[in-house]
Specification:
The protein is of the alpha+beta class and 192 residues long. It folds into 2 domains: 88 residues, no CATH class; 55 residues, no CATH class. Helices cover 32% and strands 22% of the residues. The chain binds zinc ion (2 copies). The site of one zinc ion (ZN) has 4 residues, from strand 7 and helix 4.
């Protein structure tokens, strides 16, 4: 971090656990009441500059913190970013993405968060987790044709340059769909 960034960081993550000098971050599992007091142990909500502090949008919890580099247009930052950065002791790098291990994006306890170096790595983690829960083997892929997970050895697989899997399809399913396609084509020719 540059000295300027460090100054902003220190103004947000205060040593006593307070946040931006106003609030103390106490993330809870999703089951906790969704109120500003439930998400934050309030130390400054009676402050005249207080603007509500916590909102939940699209299943993410946001904290009002306009001095943070990752704020949205309304001055809010996703809470999981704040929890990760406090643990790391520095701002996340531009490409870094925070993943929720139990896939509950409102469960921002530190032990539920993992920092990925890029969105590509993040997507790989999601794909492997989905495969593990679907079939018990994180290395298997889901066939885009029959929607079943299977050994990639039995599939045609296309991989993006950044390492993400673009798609996998069984050779058998592929052959079947090609057969159907040529049947349709023949039918079209017949009617032309
Ligand atoms: Zn994730
Ligand atoms: Zn298939």
């Amino acid at each position: 971090m540059t000295p300027a960034e460090q100054t902003i960081f220190d103004s947000i993550y205060l040593p006593d656990g307070a946040l931006g000098g106003q609030e103390r971050l106490v993330p809870r599992p999703n089951s906790q009441a969704e109120t500003p007091e439930g998400a934050l142990m309030s130390s400054g909500s009676k402050c005249p500059r207080w603007k509500g502090g916590v909102v939940v949008r699209n299943n993410y919890r946001y904290i009002f913190l306009p001095q943070h580099p990752r704020v949205d247009n309304n001055g809010y930052v996703r809470e999981h970013i704040l929890v990760a950065e406090r643990a790391l002791g520095e701002f996340l790098k531009d490409d870094e993405v925070v993943h929720h291990l139990n896939e509950d994006t409102l469960d921002n306890r530190q032990e539920n968060l993992m920092v990925c170096e890029s969105e590509a790595v993040h997507q790989i983690i999601h794909r492997r987790a989905r495969a593990f829960y679907a079939c018990g083997n994180p290395d298997w892929l889901r066939c885009i044709l029959c929607k079943k997970h299977d050994d990639p050895e039995k599939m045609y697989v296309r991989i993006y340059r950044d390492g993400r899997c673009c798609w996998g399809r069984h050779r058998k399913c592929h052959a079947e769909s090609e057969k159907q396609r040529s049947k349709v084509k023949a039918l079209c020719l017949h009617f032309n």
